[in-house]
Write a structure and sequence with these properties.
The protein is α+β, with helices and mostly antiparallel strands and 51 residues long. It has one domain. Helices cover 27% and strands 29% of the residues.
Length: 51
Amino acid sequence: IKTRSIDVTQPPRKIIKNELKKLQSFKIIQQIDLHPYDKDHAMIIAKYLEN
């Protein structure tokens, strides 16, 4: 998740939280903060939950 590409006016943590809400049909396996390699970036590892 490139937070600054989504919205530069919001805090990065808030953007990540909002993006995680969009992934409700996925099981979040891991959330990784990419600091210090990429400032304000996160990586989400998820698995799609079949209905």
